[in-house]
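Saturday, quiet lab. Running sequence design on the structure tokens for the scaffold JK sent over.
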């Protein structure tokens, strides 16, 4: 039977499943629920020193459903960070740690571009007993107007400076949470790791416009008839999250061995989690999945992950972490590998390609067989 326990930056987790910052960690009550259900750690909703500046709107979510099953696979939000008072949060951190002394509670923090504010928020949360920090350098809406959130994560120099302020005073592990709304996620990740952060979390939501209501002609989510671009999450973003985690994992492997990676984006099953771990993640976070299906999804997720591990005889997370990174290469190398394989098995390849209607040259595409030809070229 696989052992799901894992130690990350010295933090001992019963399993690698972490509640991602957002509504599922928005007060002591729901954080307690997550621990009771068996989540490995909880990252609380992002907090700041001045909650009175945070004013949310309703509605603030819009969702994309599959045409046939109606299952939600895409989720946009224009929610800000926590609107609850900092002092209330400090009390709840203390209360939670008293009730769950052995469980890992991570504070997600965000502040304006002022060193004294970052130092204060770190020190006061630490005094309340939190086990680690996640720096929210990545929220894509609302707060960038105050040079917070993704305004910092999109700018490696700014990210490095802010992470440096935190690392000067933090006594517990610190992860920097990255925005996907950049061309190269390695650049701000490298900046945070150079500043000394212990790990990277990736990804936050993708800047998006979910759709336009064709009756009212208003974009969604519509607030008094208007909207603002929000952050996209849920299953639809998993491929982008996996790609970005793979890139950050390669960076860590090559330049910062020993630092850690927490993968986030569209995780809803143990098999999803296994894929993030195979691409180098130490832990896997879930936010929208809990909003869709509740805290109880942890139980099937644990079972699915251990079934996967047993099927490959992996005894621990460490046994397969990063295993699949070795199978990424350049396109030129794919061409070379394929030419080599075809030369070795020429007759077999040609028979299979003819049989599958597999396109070998662009001139072979036809209007009549277009969908079949696309299928034949696909996996899955
Ligand atoms: C409604 C909502 C609120 C969120 N609030 C925060 C937040 O306060 N801080 C933060 O770092 N990320 C926040 N996120 C982003 C998630 O933590 C996560 O990075 C993202 O949603 C992708 O993961 P998922 O597909 O599992 O939700 C929020 C996401 C949603 C859907």
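Result came back. Writing it out in full:
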């Amino acid at each position: 039977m696989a052992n799901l326990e894992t130690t990350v930056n010295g933090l001992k987790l019963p399993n690698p499943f972490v509640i991602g910052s957002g509504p599922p960690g928005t007060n002591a009550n729901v954080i307690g629920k997550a621990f009771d259900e068996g989540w490995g750690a909880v990252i609380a909703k992002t907090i700041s020193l001045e909650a009175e500046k945070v004013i949310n709107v309703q509605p603030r979510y819009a969702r994309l459903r599959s045409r046939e099953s109606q299952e939600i696979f895409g989720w946009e939000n224009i929610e800000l960070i926590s609107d609850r008072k900092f002092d209330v949060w400090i009390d709840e951190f203390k209360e939670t740690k008293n009730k769950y002394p052995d469980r890992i509670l991570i504070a997600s923090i965000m502040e304006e571009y002022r060193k004294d504010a970052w130092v204060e928020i770190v020190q006061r949360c630490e005094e309340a007993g939190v086990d680690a920090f996640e720096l929210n350098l990545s929220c894509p809406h609302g707060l960038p107007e105050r040079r917070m959130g993704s305004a910092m994560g999109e700018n490696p120099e700014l990210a490095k400076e802010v992470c440096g302020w935190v690392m000067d005073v933090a006594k517990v592990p610190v992860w920097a949470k990255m925005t996907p709304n950049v061309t190269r996620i390695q650049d701000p990740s490298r900046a945070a790791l150079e500043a000394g952060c212990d790990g990277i979390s990736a990804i936050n939501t993708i800047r998006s416009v979910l759709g336009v209501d064709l009756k009212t002609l208003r974009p969604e989510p519509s607030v008094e008839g208007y909207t603002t671009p929000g952050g996209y999450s849920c299953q639809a973003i998993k491929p982008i999250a996996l790609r970005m985690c793979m890139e950050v994992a390669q960076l860590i492997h090559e330049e910062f061995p020993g630092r850690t990676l927490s993968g986030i984006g569209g995780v809803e099953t143990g098999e999803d989690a296994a894929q993030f771990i195979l691409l180098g993640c130490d832990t896997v976070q879930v936010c929208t999945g809990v909003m869709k299906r509740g805290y109880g999804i942890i139980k099937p997720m644990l079972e699915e992950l251990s079934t996967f591990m047993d099927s490959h005889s992996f005894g621990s997370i460490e046994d397969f972490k990063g295993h699949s990174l070795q199978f990424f290469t350049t396109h030129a190398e794919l061409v070379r590998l394929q030419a080599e394989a075809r030369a070795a098995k020429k007759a077999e390849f040609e028979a299979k390609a003819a049989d599958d209607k597999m396109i070998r040259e662009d001139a072979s595409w036809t209007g009549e067989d277009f969908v079949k030809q696309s299928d034949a070229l696909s996996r899955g």
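Notes for JK: Residues 331-376 form one domain. The first strand starts at residue 6 and ends at 8. Ask whether to fix the surface positions before the next round.
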